[in-house]
Amino acid sequence: MTDATESRALRSLRDITESGRPLAYVRSAEERRIMALLREAAGRSKPALPVWTWSLTEGMRRDGAKSGKEMGPRAALDFVTAHEGPGYFLFKDFHEPMRESAEVRRRLRDLYEQSLDTGKLLVICAPVKFIPEEIERSIVYVELAVPDLPELVGFLHREAEAIAAGGGTVDTTEATLVQLARALQGLTLDDAHHAVRRAVAARKALDAGSVPLLLEEKRLLVNRAGLIEYIPTETGLEHVGGLDILKKWLLERHKLFEMRDRISAEIVPKGILVMGISGCGKSLSIKAIASCFGLPLYRIDMIEIFSGQHGKPEGAFARACHMLESMAPAVVWFDEIEAGINAQAKEGELGRIFAFFLTWMQEKARGLFVGATANRIDLLPAEMIRKGRFDEVFFVDLPLDEERMEIFRVHLQRRGLDPSRFNLEPLKKFTKGWTGAEIEQCVVSALTTAHLQDRELTDADLFNLTANVVPLSKTMKEQVEMIRNWAFDRAVRASPRESVR
Prior knowledge:
The chain has 501 residues and is of the alpha/beta class. 47% of the residues lie in helices and 14% in strands. It has 21 helices and 15 strands. The strands form three sheets. Strands 9-11-12-13-10-14-15 form a seven-stranded mixed β-sheet, with helices on both faces. The longest helix has 17 residues, at 149-165.
């Protein structure tokens, strides 16, 4: 039976040991984390097993000892072979001796034969992958993913002891530790350590109030990678004017998403594609989803993916998607998805990205909800918008009369003004065909005029501004009509069915 408190990384390590294989190669720069995992695995064994470490600089040292014994790579392998009984051995940066010495490669093959089913496990740890062809069939290769929730909770338990010893206060209730661990998901343990220390330095405590500080540190660390951007979610559904059908759908699916670990995978919400006219609230809707679901929001930067700075685009895209899975639960935002994946993406680089994305959407972790936006959905391949990839395709049209008034009220309220002070009814006629972005700019421009004259905003300021706006629905009339005609019977309207045409 699986232990619910056992992390994914620890379970993988124990599986290797129980299979009787004596060699493992772990690609990771987190040596302290691997050592902690080996200690935990050794402590769970009956009886507890010894743990040894080796490096070129410190030689062979038993865990807990203050010093080690100097020995070269070949002598270190002889030590493991001669060791009586089971044990764990961590060899740091051993890829270089393997690369340079045929004798070391031969001795590794000998060790494999002599240590099968003996309970010994030699873990080679390095930040790069190098496995010689001679031994690749004898060694288990592991890409150490970022810590999962159980591992982060265990890490926080250890950090709590150190913080308390230093005079800080820690809320060690399980609910709080899980909340803090969720805020740290997606970070390495080293990064999580720095994030925790920064939060403690700011408040002299680690509790539920530390979550915003952890998320801010996480934003800085995640954005550093370049492929993924953490987006603060301050926009709720109440900040979205209109789109009542979309809002109702999200509130219903939110309940199912919260039950994702208790219900069948096929009914767990996967995500939505929001298409429509530019400036009508597509991006705002995705931000509101994250707030509604109470989840962090991450945006994949397709420009960075194709920049070449992170290797081949298809590899960078796959890494970004896998990284997001390690951060689940979360909302993932693919902005203007047609720019990176379109109907012509059938061959070469784009074709490989397209094929990977289709598979990933079908098989991704339950805890990821995808929100994609598109201005020109007709550019997307049919395979992408069929049922099973996205739960629903919503069309965001030009706002209706009442929706425009609601958008005015939202933007006035966000700027500290009481909407009831204004007579907005006359604006219905003069803002017909306006987008939400144009309404927002009208409010901003009217406020600017009032501030320049050092007075309060008036109805006249808003009304006068309407005469100076030529809406997108007129300047890009043909393109807007084409989008609306395409979506007429192909997508679910985000607003009631009445048309503004």
